[in-house]
Amino acid sequence: MKLLSTLSSLALVATFAATADTLARPALAQDNNPYPLTADSKPQPDVPKGEVIHFRFTSPKVFPGAIRNVEVYVPAQYKPENAATTCLYVNQDGQQWHASTVFDNLIAKKDIPVTIGVFVTPGEVQAKDGKTALTRYNRSYEYDGLGPDYVNFLLTELLPAVETKKTTDGRAVHFSHNGNDHAIGGSSSGGVAAFTAAWERPDQFPRVFTVVGTYVGLRGADDYSTLVRKYEPKPLRLYLNDGSNDQNIYAGDWWMANQMMERALVFGGYEVTHEWGTLGHDGRQGDMLFPDVMRYLWKDWPAPVKAGHSRNDMMNQILVDGETWQPAANPPGGDSPNAAISALANGRFTVEQTGKRGEEHGRISFQPNGGKRKTIGEGDQHVAASVTLSTDQTQLYVTDSATRWIWAYQVQPDGSLMYGQKYYWLHCDDNADGSGAGGMTVDRDGRLYVATALGIQVCDQAGRVNVILPLPLGERPSALRWAGPDNTILYAFCTDGKAFQRTLKAKGVNPGDSASKPAPPRL
Question: What would be the CATH architecture of the domain defined by 4-18+49-297?
């Protein structure tokens, strides 16, 4: 999936040829290319030429031992004293799209702001003896996987290293640290890596370009077309490109996957445009498009990219326009995530919990009318972190934080529990085996809200996640509780002791509230 034909350095081609995708379609001769370069991608007379700095970089922590090539384009117009307003573009798989020439031309015409380009190849852990051992090629690991590792590598390791460099005339290389001044892109697996970086850190990379993006099942990126529809919209502007003859292999159909992503982004309320073509798994149309892509990504700069409005019905039913998570100064019931659990249904159902706060586990116990207290969990092979009752108080929901399931038990007239089954299916963090589900609550319309590693997952009564509400960056909810007028303020208690609040349209139900019967779900 590496587009070696677009790399500008022969050294990069030689070093990383072994990682090229053997399934990529062969390039056509230039005179048969239906997407020829425009003048913006060709050197122009009297246009100042930027400088490209080359260096090798070894990751010290995130991808330990992985070495890679880096090119840094510094415009002729760049002045260190203006670094605070100098923009940044990061591209995976090295320099593509004739980017240096395009930047020369567009910056000279003031079509885009003064922009430093960082072009980075995937890492390799070199074999000690290349004659007897194989180098570890990190490309798929770094690029195709979900989660924050790759963007953390960029932000904490690579970009600080870039800012130690100088041009040949002695200009120190620096750029704006305001994320609104950043963009990111790439092709194939490099494209999905760019999207993942933006998805995880929209505050740092709100502008995204992907060509023949690998939104397929190599390491879970096929989930994105679903997650985009369920997450509260993020402030991203995107440009997607693919061709109808892209590859169709064991991991999926690239052409269909890119169209599914574009449709998901439109549904999710994102600012997105696309250009579809007829080629295969290559970057020739991307070469032609790149100048206009840059104009699109940087349009209206420095105005910030804003989050849009999703078409998700449940999201629109529960969210109040303009309301966001805010720190909670005086959360109800103190900051104990067990407060709601211990009070549940006057103690009819309790959790014997062990472990530190935010990581509680235990077994559910219940007491039938006039009977002896019993426990559940042993035969079902799940570890309970919390429980809550359904809105009508006829179902008991039990978290199993080590898996992706919430169990449901029917509460019998005598208070006993029967018919337990894995009922609610949750989304999981890519770096975890389970959802990390903690506290739960319900609203009067029967929705279940679950505190998980990804945020608060909101489910319909049929057991399906419809909405995911992440908390502010780095915060992980462990328990939930309603308060405020008509129980319309949802409080989220976090594993680090913080608490956040948000006003919703939904009306919540707390332990001890009267039972009510909601409308049945759409099946």
Answer: 3-Layer(aba) Sandwich (3.40)
